Amino acid sequence: MSEHNIVHVEFSAEDLEAAGKFYRELFGWEIEQIPEMNYATFDDGDNVGGGFNPVTDTNPAGTVLVYVGTDDIDANLAKAESLGGKIVLPKSEIPDTGWFGIFSDPTGNVVGVYTPLQKES
Q1: In CATH, what number is assigned to the domain containing residue 114?
Q2: Same structural domain, 104 and 121
Q3: What's this model's pTM, rounded to 2 decimal places?
Q4: Would you write out the chain's pLDDT as a tens digit for each of its 121 residues?
């Protein structure tokens, strides 16, 4: 059974370069800009990483999205729905990285679930 740890956190940002610079200088996080995806990632140097998403109508300024690790995204989404939550985004692939899905809980909080790509040894 999966441990269901927090594995990724995303912040909304008007300016991805400025957000990356701020957190690099504030916390010493390693930042990688990925212009082709209009995204930037951060690595805190310990065990939690995340990214910066551009601000949009569906991702307004101030949005923070937490991803919980799982070994069965479909089962977690179905269970969330059975408990009164709603599926926001079904299981989707992140090329060469893994899969994710997003649900909202009955109080309106939006949470992601994530499974990494299994790398062959």
Answers
A1: 3.10.180.10
A2: yes
A3: 0.86
A4: 358 898 999 999 999 999 999 999 999 999 999 999 999 999 988 877 899 999 999 889 999 999 999 999 999 999 999 999 999 999 999 988 899 999 999 999 999 999 999 865 5
